[in-house]
Amino acid sequence: MKHRGGKVHIAGRPFKGIKSTVDWKRNNFVMIVSRAYQSILFVLVIVMAGAEVQENLSPNCKQFLYMGTLPRGLQQLSFKKICQFYEGKPRFVTLFDTFSHIPIYSAYTFKRSDGSKKVDVPWMYEPQLSTVSDSREMQPFPSENLHKSFEDAQAVLEDYSNSVMFERGQLNPDEHQADIHDKASTYTLTNVVPQVREFNIGHWKDHQHMIRRRLNNYCRGTAYIVTGVTTSGHSIRRHNINRLGIPTYLWSAYCCIDFDHNAPFSERSKFPVFAAHGLNDREDNKVQEMTVRQLEDFLKKVTYVDSSFQIFYDNCVALNSAMP
Fold it and tell me: Where exactly are the transmembrane stretches of this chain (predicted)?
């Protein structure tokens, strides 16, 4: 912005919207407003470009949530909602913490399966957590050093490479999916947390197997699952920088309102909704099953959820029915 002959010029041209008598303070105010307007436009461009990093989930992403409703009572500025797209379709939903670079939870629908794993998938990342991208899908990690542009907001492979104690633990495990693309979509670092190896391959794995068998056998309709973590401030560091929040507990809950009422009582009593948690440690890491309300009360004591925290809408009570 320049003054020429008593007139205001911007980029070499007279700015006709302001009279030549406007004083210096007014000119600076207009310039600040103009810059703020440009910043707003830039933010809007980012939001419009990011189809899967969403402030409000689109209807095709709400299909993975019971009654289309996210768990309530989780509010942090660093949390981002991700509708996880793979091969042109939404696959599940993740609430991701861009500060600790781990998911807070992943919400998905269970698919009956034999529990087989898809092991030939490269690990992927979410491009739009950090950059404006034409693609709304998770992408395989690029060649070395190109990840520098997005590691500020999410995990990269190097964060796990030198860790002896921790493995990449999936919140939405591939064994709870049937379609090969649904299985493949679980191999994104926005769906994994640092999990102690002994816990990952021990009690937690056994729990995932048990839930798969239970839902395979007794859930007749859609089963909605939310699996998440609590953290306590400990981190995996790389180059003396905190990179990954380390979960203290892993927790999980499922909701299936259409189930086999002739199932054995030991199984029938765990419908329509049940939950569990386990300590992410080498010892004392047995997974404890409990009601969803007991899990919610537990999480209110040990993590950042507020008093209104609820995993499933109306605690997974079917319309016109009562809790069993």
Answer: 29-51
Beta-sheet strand order (sheet of 288-290): 53-54, 79-86, 89-97, 102-109, 224-238, 241-255, 273-279, 288-290
Structure tokens at 88: 């042109």
Q: Quick one: pLDDT band at residue 133, thresholds 50, 70, 90?
A: low
Q: Contact, 136 vs 60, CB < 8 A? A: no
Beta bridge partners of 89: 86
**Mean pLDDT of all residues in 215-229:** 98
Tokens of 197: 């190896």
For residue 17, pLDDT over 60 is answered with no
Helix, strand, coil percentages for the chain (3-state, nearest 5): 30, 30, 40
Q: Report the alpha-carbon distance of residue 245 to residue 234 in Å, rounded.
A: 6
Phi/psi class of residue 54: alpha, beta or left (left: φ > 0; alpha: ψ in -120 to 50)? beta
Listing DSSP states for 121-184 in one string gives ---EE-GGGTS--S--S-EE--STTGGGGTTTTS--THHHHT-SSEEEEESS-GGG--SHHHHH
**Residue 39: pLDDT above 60?**
no
| CA 209/CA 282 separation, integer angstroms | 20
If DSSP codes are grouped into helix, strand and coil, which group holds residue 241?
strand
Burial 110-122 (b: 16+ CB within 10 A, else e): bbebeeeebeebe
